Structure formats: C-alpha cells, structure tokens
C-alpha cells in the first residue's frame, strides 16, 4: 500500500501513521457533548468497504490527510489534505445557514 | 455409532489390528433444525468452546453452532499457537489464569490430543525500566498464584546461549519467564471442541453464513442464514474479526476496529528453540513447531482492514526484530506468511456481555490474544448465556465499560486500537 500525498507524491506506508475514522470532533459546548464524545472516541466507523480515514505524514510533510480507502482490498481512491476537507465542510455548513 | 469412538491406547491398538476401519467422523455434518434453545454464531475456537461448555457444564444440548465457512477456517487455525497467563491488571489475571488451567486439563476433558506443550514463555527485557515493569508484572502474577520467574542475563543465557547478547542498542538484560506457558496445536483445539460438542448433541452447521437477525418486540427470535431461518431463544455472537459487521445487522455499534495481524513460518530446520521467546525492544515473538518451522510474528499493521493480508513495512519490521534478537536465522528462508483479521477493542481487552437486545449475547474484541483465551472465553460465554449473568472471572469484560470509564488497558495506550 502506498499513499499519494498531495504535497510529497506517492510514498511508502511506513512514512504514515494512522488515526482511523475521519469524523469531525464534536462541539464540546453542545448539549449532547458527552454522548457525542463517547461516540467520537469509542464508536468509530469499522466498515468493510470504502472508508474515509485520517493519516498523518509523520516522516514527510507532517500534513494530516483524509484518505478514502477500501478496507476489503486496500485500494485507495482519493487522498486530500485534511485542511482542504475541513475548509470544504465549513463552506458547506456556511451555505446551509 | 462407529466401533471406536473414544481415543485410547486400546482403541488405537485395536484399530491398528483391524486396518483403521472402525473410526467414525469426528463430528456429524448437521443440517439446521427449525429452532434451538441457543444458536452460537461463529464456528471458531470460541464459538465451539462455548457450545461445548453449554452442553457439558450447563446442560444445554439443544444448541447449534453456525459457521459461514468450515470449522477451523478462521483465526483459530491461523494463529501462532501461544498460550500464557502473564497479565497485569485485575480484570485480566483471573480470567487468563482460568484459561491456563483449562488448557492444562483440556486433552483429558475432550479426549483429544491438542498437543498442549507447556514449554515456557520468556519475555526478554532490555533496560532497567523494562526490568522494573516486568518485575511488577511478575509480582502481580505471583500474588494471584501464577508462576513467574524474573531471570537475569546469565539465567537467560543458560537457556538460549545463541541469542544476541552483544547488541549495543538492545542488550538482553534478562527476562520474565512463565514456565506453564507454551503452545497448543491450534487446529486440534477447534476439532477437539467440535468433536466434544457434537458428542453431547450440539449441531455444527457449516457453510451457513448469518445474513440477519429476527426480532420480536426487541427480543431475539432467530437468525437468518444462507441455509435458511433458524429459530433461537438465545443467540451468542463469537465472530471476532467480523464483530462490527455482524453486530451491525442487529443494530449494534461496537467499540471495535478490525485490523490485520501477520504471522510467518520459516522452512523446517533442526530443533533450535524449545520454548517461546519474545523480544522486548521491538515486537517479535517466536517458537518452533514440531515440523521444525520457526513460527513468529510481531505488531498488527495498524489500519482498519478486512483483507486477510498485510503490507510490507510490517513484514520488514518483524524480520528486523527477529534479526536483532537471533542473527543466526538470517539465512533461513521464509516458507509463508499470512494475515488474519483481529477485533481490536478500544482498550485492548475483550468483551463478554449481554447486548441491549434481549437474548443476544456478545463475545469479541479479543485483539491479537484470542487463542490463549479460547477455553475460558467459551466457559464464561456459556455461563453468561445459560445463566444470563457474567461468570465470576469475566465480570470486568463489559460492553459499557468504555462509557463508564472502567477500561482494562494493559498497555496504557488509550482508545487507539492500533497501539494495543
């Protein structure tokens, strides 16, 4: 498995470390924060199939990446910088308001 | 009924004279009945052990085990066969020690040769801090009546003179030895429990994959399988590796991620290593099979996966660990390597508990340590299903412990399954 880092190009797996399910950290001020943080911390996605996950390019550019990968085949269909993904999500949230 | 059904020196002798014609199959190829008192999903070691103890100790014989493939096709036939009870935390120690005691009596109990070999498990330490941590672990074990010996460098050298004692970076300072630990023939564990359960009336239904659960007013009434619907008053899940997928069919989200653990076997060589040795500065553990192959492994790959194969960085890491510990294996060729899917729980410890669905019980989250737990897991799960309350030594393995903060985190890694 090699990950195509948007900043560094295609690199070996051992340059990256893994955080798992690429969900957004809940809002600590929300009324259901306790349940939301429990789910965030312990009930992470464990799908058999395409999954969005966070990888950190520790031995490279130090960027956090959102990688879309099929957990049945290890095939990677998309790699984006986490910053880009977060900004896009903010934009969507902004339009919704 | 076959002429020879019980293994003994007499039946072996008799069948030797009669051309081995009197043996029957070790278990029947059962077809599903319309309903059972208990259906166990998963015909691996834990599922079969559960069915065996349900029948043997709790008197429940109207039981079926449904297995999507064939008996022993999952992790029970794919692990590195090590058994030990060298744990540190209160929630774990009594459970794993009960498992160790069950291993010690397993062959007589099952009348099946599982090749239980208490050849000793030696965990090496390479620094003062690690020695202190191992001394603490050994003391915790001894306080629970479990054997543990802290060895110095010379004592280790007398056991394994050919390890690399001259490594500048990771000098071997000594080791923590559990002499009662060792290895067990993994396939025989599955076959022995299957045979034992079958003899007590349990139906073992192979090639039946569960595709859904049927509920009535929040209570389980049976399982949908590829061989049709099977009714059940109680259903127990023992499908580690695929727990999240199967539990999702019952609307349950688990604190588990599925990861791959790789294992390796070398070509057969002459007897070299008569126990189990682990390298404390990396992650490498090794024993030698009776066929002569070195059986070894290391860390999980560290990312979610359901593919039963790993990647090369971990292969390299494991082999580097092996070379650091025992440079003389450098010219030995690898025979094969493979990967199995582990239920990695969020604290590195298992779950044996009721679920919010009445009549549905869960057993999983074994991380990469499920094999050694097989007998105790089966017994405790059987107890839970039969009595609807946890067995004394498995009380800590609750499903809700992550919410209430009662984690059993042997490694102190927090909720990062890939670090346990």
TrEMBL record, chain A:
This is N-methylglutamate dehydrogenase subunit B. InterPro entries: SoxD, SoxD_sf. One of its GO terms (biological process) is tetrahydrofolate metabolic process. One of its GO terms (molecular function) is sarcosine oxidase activity.
From TrEMBL, chain B:
Signal peptide: none annotated. Its cofactor is FAD; FMN. GO terms for biological process: tetrahydrofolate metabolic process. It is found in: Cytoplasm. GO terms for molecular function: nucleotide binding; sarcosine oxidase activity. Its main location: cytoplasm. Keywords: Cytoplasm, FAD, Flavoprotein, FMN, Nucleotide-binding, Oxidoreductase. The keyword Flavoprotein applies. Residues 38-82 form the Rhodanese domain. It catalyses: sarcosine + (6S)-5,6,7,8-tetrahydrofolate + O2 = (6R)-5,10-methylene-5,6,7,8-tetrahydrofolate + glycine + H2O2; sarcosine + O2 + H2O = formaldehyde + glycine + H2O2. InterPro entries: FAD-dep_OxRdtase, FAD/NAD-bd_sf, Rhodanese-like_dom, SoxB. It comes from the Bacteria. One of its GO terms (cellular component) is cytoplasm. SUPFAM superfamilies: FAD/NAD(P)-binding domain. Its EC number is 1.5.3.24. Belongs to the SoxB family. This is Sarcosine oxidase subunit beta. The lineage of its organism: Bacteria, Pseudomonadati, Pseudomonadota, Alphaproteobacteria, Hyphomicrobiales.
């Amino acid at each position: 498995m090699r990950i195509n880092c948007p900043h560094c190009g295609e690199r070996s797996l051992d340059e990256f470390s893994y955080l798992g399910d690429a969900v957004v950290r809940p809002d600590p001020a929300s009324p259901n924060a306790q349940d939301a943080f429990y789910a965030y911390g312990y009930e992470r996605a464990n799908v058999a199939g395409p999954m969005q996950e966070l990888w950190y390019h520790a031995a490279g550019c130090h960027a956090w990446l959102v990688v879309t990968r099929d957990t049945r085949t290890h095939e990677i269909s998309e790699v984006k910088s986490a910053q880009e993904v977060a900004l896009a999500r903010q934009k969507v949230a902004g339009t919704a308001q | 009924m076959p002429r020879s059904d019980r293994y003994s020196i007499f039946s072996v002798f008799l069948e030797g004279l009669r051309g081995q014609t009197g043996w029957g199959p070790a278990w029947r190829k059962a077809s599903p009945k319309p309903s059972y008192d208990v259906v166990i999903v998963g015909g691996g070691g834990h599922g079969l052990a559960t069915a065996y103890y349900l029948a043997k100790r709790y008197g429940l014989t109207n039981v079926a085990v449904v297995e999507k493939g064939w008996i022993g096709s999952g992790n029970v036939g794919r692990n590195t066969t090590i058994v030990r009870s060298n744990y540190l935390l209160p929630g774990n120690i009594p459970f794993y020690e009960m498992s160790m005691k069950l291993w010690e009596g397993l062959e007589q109990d099952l009348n099946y040769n599982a090749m239980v070999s208490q050849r000793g498990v030696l965990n090496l330490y390479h620094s003062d801090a690690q020695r202190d941590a191992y001394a603490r672990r050994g003391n915790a074990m001894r306080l629970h009546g479990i054997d543990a010996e802290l060895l110095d460098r010379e004592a280790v050298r007398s056991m394994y003179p050919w390890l690399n004692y001259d490594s500048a970076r990771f000098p071997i300072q000594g080791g923590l030895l559990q002499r009662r630990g060792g290895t067990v023939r993994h396939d025989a564990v599955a076959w022995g429990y299957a045979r034992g359960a079958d003899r007590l009336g349990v139906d073992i239904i192979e090639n039946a994959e569960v595709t859904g659960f049927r509920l009535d007013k929040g209570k389980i009434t049976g399982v949908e399988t590829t061989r049709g619907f099977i009714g059940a008053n109680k259903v127990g899940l023992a499908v580690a590796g695929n727990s999240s997928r199967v539990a999702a069919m019952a609307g349950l989200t688990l604190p588990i991620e599925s990861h791959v653990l790789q294992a390796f076997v070398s070509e057969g060589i002459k007897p070299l290593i008569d126990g189990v040795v682990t390298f404390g500065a990396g992650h490498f553990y090794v024993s030698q099979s009776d066929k002569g192959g070195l059986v070894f492994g290391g860390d999980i790959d560290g990312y979610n996966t359901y593919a039963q194969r790993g990647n090369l960085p971990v292969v390299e890491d494991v082999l580097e660990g092996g070379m650091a510990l025992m440079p003389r294996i450098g010219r030995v060729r690898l025979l094969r390597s493979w990967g199995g899917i582990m239920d990695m729980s969020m604290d590195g410890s298992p779950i044996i508990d009721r679920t919010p669905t009445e009549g549905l019980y869960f057993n999983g989250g074994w991380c990469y340590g499920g094999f050694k737990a097989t007998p105790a897991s089966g017994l405790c799960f059987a107890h839970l299903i039969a009595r609807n309350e946890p067995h004394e030594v498995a009380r800590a393995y609750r499903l809700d412990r992550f919410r209430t903060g009662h984690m059993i985190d042997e490694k102190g890694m927090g909720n990062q399954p890939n670090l346990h």
